[in-house]
Amino acid sequence: MLTVSIMHEGHGLRAAPMIRARGVLLLCGAIAWPSVSVFAAESVPSSRLATSGDSSQIFLPDAPLDAQQLGPLLRQVVHVVTSTAAFERDVKALRAEQDGVKTRLTTAEGELQTVERQRQQLTQQLEALERQQQGRLEGLRKELEANLVGELTRARQHVSAEQAADFTRQVQVFEARQQDAIGQSLDQELFLKERELDQLSQEIDVQTQELLDRLSRLDVHSDLAKSLERSTTEAIAKRKAQLAARRQQLTEERNTRLATQRREFIEKLKQHQGLEQERRVTLKEASLRSSMAELLHKAQLEDAGRVDQARRAVDDIRGRHTKLTQQRALLATRIEAINQELAAKIDGIKELEGQRKTSMTRLEQAFHHDNPGEHAGVLTWFGRVIQQLPAEAAAELGGLHQRLAAIAEQEQKLREQRRMLRERQLALQVSREVESQYQALQAKQRREQDSKARRAEELVTQAHQFAGRGQYDEALQLLAQAQTLNPPQAQAIAAARDELLMTRERVQRQTQTVQVEQLFSRAMKVFEQGRYEEAVALFQQVIDQEAKLGTPRPMAGGGRP
């Protein structure tokens, strides 16, 4: 009891300077209070605190006389705390929105990549389909062109054959008709000439006969008559010769004229047949090309549906790609705006955090102005105020209330300790006469305890020596005796005893492990020598001993059978 009272007395003596320093601090705070309250009212910018409303609207219960000057600072702290909480809620909401926008942006980018791949695939498919359609049309067109050339060749050959037969027939008809026409004209002319010649011959004969008759009546010489007859005959022969020459000339003219007209007719006929052939071939080609165009149009229409569908798919995917690109740009813009707003809010929170610390420090200093241990009514009033404040302000000021309550409790304990110190000082004055007896008793107890402690240390040392020689049972007995002799060191001795038990168990386990290893080596040698029956028995012993050890043995060499 005397030792405990001395310790409390020392604590109270050490606490006295702290109490005096606290009193000086409170006195200084009371002197500087007016300027502190004014500075606290003007320190927080109104632009930062406007988000939580006017701090003067905060309801405070009727304050005791000692807490009249705490109202402005308390309102200021509540204002700063609620403003900070509002900013933090805004930051939380902005970060949630930022996460959502980032998620949407990531989704949009992933979807945009997918759409880009789809757009490339659809574009490639469209190009391949167009090339396929173009190739198919080109192939079909080439095939139809080849068929058209064949058909036109056969049509020309057929028309040429027909025209050749018609040409020969028309030429023959023309020649016959021209020969008849020319022959009739020449025959008529020759007939007239011959008739004229016959008339002339008759007239000459008549005239000659008349002349001969006259000559005969005149009794002209016969030579003259013969000469006249001969002249007449020669004239007629000459006239006949001229007629034959004319006939020959007309025949040649007829043949020449017929050949000329035949050439002209053949040329005109060939020209007409050429034009007719071109007309018929052109008509045939137009008919064939019309059929070819219908086939190509039909083939084009057959592929047009797939091409149009592919083009619509490409147009749709391009529109979707454009929309996603615009959406990504809008989301990126929104993220930038959110980042700027977040930076502004975070700067505001940092500024308000500094103001909160300053306001809390000033409020706590104001509470310390009066000793909280001596004014329990102020703490009670402060607790009622906290209960009526918003949650964030109540949480912030709750810690201050707890600290002030702890300080008040500590002050109460210090007063109680001072009271006990005075009582113990009085008891110390009364008990000075028994102090020497008590000290002698304490000295005797300490000597006995020291002797037991030295004996216990010797036993522990001997136990370690026995353990070093492997005599663990004797060492454990010595540790038990040491633990009995020195109860204050029982825990340390018990730890040494546990360590010794673990060492003994480890040594025993190592010994058993070595024995198992040796037995396993022996079993392997027997196994390798071919004595399998003996090897089975030895391996079974190894398994039994390992089961007792409780740890599996790793495979060695080539493994176990």
SSE topology sketch:
Elements: H1 2-31, H2 33-43, H3 46-49, H4 71-218, H5 222-369, H6 376-388, H7 391-430, H8 432-468, H9 472-485, H10 490-528, H11 532-549
Helix pairs in contact: 1-5, 1-7, 2-5, 4-5, 4-7, 6-7, 8-9, 9-10, 10-11
- The share of residues in helices is over 70%
Mean pLDDT: 70
Structural class: mainly alpha
Order of helices and strands: HHHHHHHHHHH
Q: Count helical runs.
A: 11
Could you tell me how far the N terminus lies from the C terminus, measured between alpha carbons in angstroms?
Answer: 76 Å
| Shape field | elongated
Largest sheet: none
Strand fraction band?
A: under 5%
* C-alpha-based Rg, rounded: 73 Å
Uncertain runs are 1-57, 551-561
How many domains? The number is 3
According to DSSP, the number of beta strands is 0
Please characterize this protein's 3D structure:
The protein has 561 residues and is an all-alpha fold. It has three domains: 188 residues, no CATH class; 196 residues; 105 residues, Serine Threonine Protein Phosphatase 5, Tetratricopeptide repeat. It is built from eleven helices and no strands. Helix 2 runs antiparallel to helix 5, helix 4 packs antiparallel against helix 7 and helix 10 packs antiparallel against helix 11. The longest helix has 148 residues. It is elongated. 12% of the residues are buried. The N terminus and C terminus are likely disordered.
